[in-house]
Amino acid sequence: ERIKDRELKELVVRVALGAMMQRDVAQNDLTNYIEGCRMLGDLKETCLDGVVWGLLYHGPPENEYVKALRFCESEALGLQEEDFCYKDTFSRITMSYPYAQEKIEEICNGVPEQYRKYCNIK
Fold first, then answer.
1. Are 94 and 53 in contact (CB under 8 A)?
2. How far apart are CA 39 and CA 61, in angstroms?
3. pTM for the complete prediction?
4. pLDDT-derived band of residue 94, with 50, 70 and 90 as boundaries?
């Protein structure tokens, strides 16, 4: 709350959540993070992005995306939050696998059809 600069505030939130995922990546229920992100008001999406980024960064090699996508499947997410989660996750996945279109396609086929538009398969 004391940070006035918006960019710095977003950076702090994103990095803090990403770091927390290092500790909690093995947990199956991350509902508490969804509730916590909602409490941040206009920083909610920044917070959710930090969770997704942290799960991808700290997930097991070649399967980093599994926990992030499982997070997006959480019943605790509202429809807009779920949509944001998939969009954000695929944005980061395509950066992680820029030359592995087959891998992205495989991952994409495992998500609900309405979110496949975010796969960015070329």
1. no
2. 32
3. 0.90
4. confident
* Contact in structure between 69 and 111 (CB atoms under 8 Å): yes
What is the percent of the chain where pLDDT is above 90?
74
Task: List the single range of 15-19, 72-76, 96-100 with lowest mean pLDDT.
Answer: 96-100
Q: Residue 113: what are its φ and ψ, rounded to 5°?
A: -55, -35
Residue with tokens 């996945």: 93
- Cβ burial of 75 (10 Å; 0-12, 13-18, 19+) is exposed
- Residue 41: how many CA atoms within 13 Å on its side-chain side? 3
Distance, in Å, from the CA atom of 108 to the CA atom of 72, rounded to the nearest integer, reads 13
For residue 26, CA distances in Å to 18, 53, 65 come to 14, 15, 13
- Distance between CA atoms of residues 9 and 69, nearest Å: 26
* Inter-CA distances, 67 with 21, 54, 88, Å: 10, 10, 14
- For the cut 90, the answer to whether the pLDDT of residue 77 exceeds it is yes
Is the Cβ–Cβ distance between 63 and 73 less than 8 Å?
Answer: no
